[in-house]
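Key result, reporting period 2: structure in, sequence out.
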């Protein structure tokens, strides 16, 4: 067994032991992911907890014995208190480092122990050793090796017990992992973080070199070996007399600063110099100079003569690497390694900040700041965006000036202006589509273009070609402001207003110039309006716009039914009607429209990104519809088809963010039929967790790409909710953690997305309340449901779905009040739900309706049952309540039985049916006996 394998086993095993026994199995399964062998090994350890220490020690001993590394017999096997030395890891001038294990009644742990050699325990070394131990005791940073314990051997030699850091020196790790220059800089910044922390604790390391900067298998940097470090704080200097740090002159020459070599007074600038040398080697694979085996005088001369060597001039560099290093990176390294300490960076933090500026394309402090340099860095950050902005702004400005200089009767000049304006927005959209420009930057560019086109319209008038470009600009600005379909800034109200202007402009253009392009523009603006109104919960407005789009698209398609653009516009219009129908609790109509979309569009991918993304959406919409109709197998089949297509799309277009988001949506829509809330699922939590983690990874990536993208933020909140859904059945506590994260993020988005975000917030509140099952959680459960109820009341009239949500919200509040003995309020909430029960019918094709009716009938039955059992009430009232209770429970049982009749039963629906039927069987005579005994 490899050493990194048993290290991983030990880490997961120890973390599991720190958890309550009931939570260990769940944690280990998550930690091991799909590694069945690893899971089996750790489960075996947990089952044999008492023998776990012996088993792990056996694994370690076998590993070391097989490697032939049990060599230093004079020390190997030595017992230092609870620690047992296993083998030698490293040795140096001060002492030896051993791999050891802690083996006592408290716990088992793999550690590293450093001690002085028997033959080299001079007072000077003992003093330095104790000082290192004292220094390490003051440091607590994730990128610095941690001291765990300390003591003395039986013969009086001090030792230090440290965390065992397994890994490679940073230079070797970077090479073996094939890290790019940017990735190496990111790794180096972790080193800067550790050294800066030590400096804040008034510690100078004095020996920064690759072998003292380790990279663990999981990519974590660990700064180790403070053996010759210098404490600047008096309290860190031990009281016994010893030679000063400067007189000892201990160092690694190739990385030592000039002042170290010369034996001068040392400051934090010394470590900055060593960091500069390390960065040089990390970037180039070679050192700026070699000083080993040279005298101090000779080493000082070499440093003085060769100082100023640029990384880009290092031998063996490729032309592309040399180009990447020249300029800013050269300047950063040269500033860090300046011969004069006062000319280096003022602190390690300043060095780190310059590296961050380089990574983000901003001007660095190591260079003289000039307007030209600042502008070049801006263009570098937004290369395509800046070029496009300049091109469009210049073109449109020239168009306006050109026209103003010409007579309105000069038809030739006007035609030139029209021709140039015609492609302005299309060209800009094409160039920005695959650029790195942020959502915010793109929105600013299109707003500027929109302003130019507006001025041009005032000059030229209602030229149809210009109107078309103006409509396109309005659409693109609306997309970026707040369309839920693309990356956006979350300004939904602005988006609605902008889309309406786009629609009016497109219709006007069509009136002046009927044709394919203007017709397409009209259809697309209606579709945009339908989509955003649906997202905001305005079902009627959404339906009106999609119906308009469908009417126009159907006529457009009939002219040339085989033309791809016409098929796309008609199919997406049908799909839009399907979305609206699903939101209106009419899954039959939704299925009809999704089927029409497939009939027009086809059901196979063609390798074109936009086409295949739309096809994925059709499969997901149909899957959701089938799930609501109770056809879980068919629903899962469609959802899995969507996932397969989306995964293939990402493989074909790996750099496409829209393709990644299509995959995110596919994973998300598969989670609901697997383990979604409230009965409409097959209760496959393990599979749901797999897809929830995948969806979460994509959502986190998209937020990392553009933090101002509100759509990505909203997707992340949705991914958090799905993680909660995936765990709600198997581990309510873990589910609650994810629901809380989702609620926190959605609250931040609520001012942007308005009713859409508030609707999701209500869903999340209700989901969290459902998994808060402990008795002491009662007050919080009530608060969450009350907050959700306020949103439900606000949005109730927007759609049938809104009314259904409000009805169920009252029933949930009634159940929560009963749980805390609040019968009076429970009765009030149950009565509030009664008017809504008549608005829905048990013959509805939507299982969402049946589900909520079943739960609400049960809630009313529960309230009446509690009234019947209240001995303080009159007998007549209790008998009436008993009859009402049975009536409501019978209605609930009938609803859940309907699921069986439709062949739509799920594990949760069967659980609910069994629960209410059991109650009916048990409650037949109990209330009557209670009344008789009164």
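The corresponding designed sequence is given below.
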């Amino acid at each position: 067994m490899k050493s990194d394998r048993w290290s991983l086993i030990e880490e997961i095993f120890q973390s599991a032991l720190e958890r309550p026994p009931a939570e260990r199995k769940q944690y280990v399964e998550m930690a091991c992911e799909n590694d069945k062998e690893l899971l089996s090994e750790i489960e075996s350890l947990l089952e044999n907890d008492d023998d776990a220490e012996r088993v792990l020690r056996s694994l370690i001993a076998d590993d070391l014995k097989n490697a032939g590394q049990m060599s230093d017999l004079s020390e190997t096997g030595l017992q230092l208190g609870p620690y047992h030395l296993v083998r030698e890891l490293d040795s140096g001038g001060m002492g030896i480092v051993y791999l050891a294990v802690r083996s006592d009644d408290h716990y088992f742990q793999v550690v590293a122990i450093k001690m002085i050699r028997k033959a080299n325990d001079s007072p000077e070394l003992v003093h330095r050793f104790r000082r290192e131990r004292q220094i390490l005791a003051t440091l607590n940073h994730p990128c610095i090796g941690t001291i765990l314990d300390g003591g003395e051997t039986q013969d009086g030699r001090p030792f230090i017990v440290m965390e065992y850091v397994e890994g490679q020196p940073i230079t070797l790790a970077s090479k073996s992992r094939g890290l790019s220059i940017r990735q190496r800089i990111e790794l180096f910044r972790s080193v800067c973080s550790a050294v800066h922390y030590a400096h804040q604790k008034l510690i100078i390391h004095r020996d920064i070199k690759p072998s003292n900067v380790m990279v663990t298998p999981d990519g974590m940097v660990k700064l180790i070996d403070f053996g010759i470090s210098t404490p600047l704080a008096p309290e860190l200097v031990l009281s016994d007399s010893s030679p000063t740090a400067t007189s000892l002159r201990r160092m690694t020459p190739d990385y030592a600063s000039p002042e170290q070599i010369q034996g001068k007074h040392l400051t934090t600038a010394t470590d900055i110099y060593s960091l500069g040398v390390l960065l040089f080697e990390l970037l180039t694979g070679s050192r700026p100079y070699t000083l080993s085996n040279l005298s101090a005088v000779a080493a000082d001369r070499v440093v003085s003569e060769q100082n100023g060597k640029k990384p880009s001039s290092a031998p063996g560099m490729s032309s592309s690497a040399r180009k990447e290093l020249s300029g800013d990176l050269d300047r950063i390294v040269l500033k860090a390694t300046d011969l004069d300490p006062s000319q280096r960076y003022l602190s390690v933090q300043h060095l780190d900040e310059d590296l961050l500026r380089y990574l983000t394309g901003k001007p660095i402090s190591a260079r003289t700041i000039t307007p030209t340099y600042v502008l070049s860095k801006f263009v570098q950050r937004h290369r395509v965006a800046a070029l496009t902005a300049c091109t469009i702004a210049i073109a449109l400005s020239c168009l306006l000036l050109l026209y103003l200089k010409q007579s309105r009767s000069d038809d030739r000049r006007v035609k030139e202006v029209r021709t140039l304006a015609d492609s302005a927005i299309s060209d800009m959209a094409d160039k920005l589509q695959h650029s790195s420009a942020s959502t915010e930057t793109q929105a600013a560019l299109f707003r500027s273009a929109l302003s130019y086109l507006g001025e041009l319209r005032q000059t030229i008038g209602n030229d149809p070609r210009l109107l078309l470009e103006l409509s396109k600009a309005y659409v693109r600005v609306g997309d970026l402001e707040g369309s839920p379909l693309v990356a956006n800034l979350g300004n939904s109200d602005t988006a609605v207003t902008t889309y309406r202007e786009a629609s009016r402009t497109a219709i006007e253009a069509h009136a002046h110039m009927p044709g394919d392009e203007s017709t397409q523009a009209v259809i697309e603006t209606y579709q945009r309006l339908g989509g955003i109104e649906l997202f905001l919960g305005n079902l009627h407005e959404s339906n009106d716009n999609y119906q308009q789009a469908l009417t126009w698209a159907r006529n457009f398609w009939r002219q040339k039914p085989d033309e791809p653009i016409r098929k796309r516009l008609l199919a997406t219009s049908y799909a839009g009607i399907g979305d609206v129908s699903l939101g209106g609790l009419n899954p039959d109509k939704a299925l009809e429209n999704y089927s029409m979309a497939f009939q027009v569009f086809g059901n196979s991918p063609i390798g074109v990104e936009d086409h295949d993304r739309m096809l994925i959406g059709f499969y997901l919409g149909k899957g959701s519809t089938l799930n609501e109709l109770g056809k879980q197998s068919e629903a899962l089949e469609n959802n899995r088809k969507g996932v397969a297509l989306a995964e293939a799309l990402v493989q074909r277009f790996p750099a496409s963010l829209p393709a990644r988001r299509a995959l995110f949506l596919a994973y998300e829509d598969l989670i609901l039929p697997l383990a979604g809330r409230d009965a409409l699922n097959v209760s496959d939590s393990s599979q749901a967790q797999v897809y929830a983690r995948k969806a979460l990874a994509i959502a986190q990536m998209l937020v990392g790409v553009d933090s101002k993208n509100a759509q990505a933020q909203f997707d992340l909140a949705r991914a958090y909710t799905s993680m909660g859904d995936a765990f709600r059945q198997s581990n309510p506590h873990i589910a609650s953690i994810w629901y809380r994260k989702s609620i926190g993020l959605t609250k931040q988005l609520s001012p942007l997305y308005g009713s859409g975000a508030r609707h999701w917030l209500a869903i999340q509140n209700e989901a969290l309340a459902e998994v808060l099952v402990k008795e002491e959680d009662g007050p919080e459960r009530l608060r969450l449901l009350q907050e959700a109820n306020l949103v439900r009341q606000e949005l109730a009239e927007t759609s049938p779905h809104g009314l259904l949500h409000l009805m169920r919200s009252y029933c949930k509040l009634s159940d929560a009040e009963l749980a805390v003995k609040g019968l009076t309020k429970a009765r009030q909430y149950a009565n509030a739900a009664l008017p809504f029960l008549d608005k829905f019918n048990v013959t509805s094709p939507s299982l969402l309706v049946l589900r909520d009716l079943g739960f609400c009938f049960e809630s009313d039955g529960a309230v009446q049952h509690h009234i019947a059992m209240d001995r303080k009430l009159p007998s007549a009232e209790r008998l009436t309540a008993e009859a009402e209770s049975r009536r409501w429970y019978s209605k609930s049982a009938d609803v859940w039985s309907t699921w069986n009749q439709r062949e739509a039963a799920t594990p949760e629906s069967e659980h609910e049916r069994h629960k209410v039927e059991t109650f009916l069987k048990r409650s037949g005579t109990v209330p009557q006996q209670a009344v008789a005994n009164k």
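The radius of gyration is 35 Å. The chain has 39 helices and eleven strands. This case is discussed further under Risks and Mitigation.
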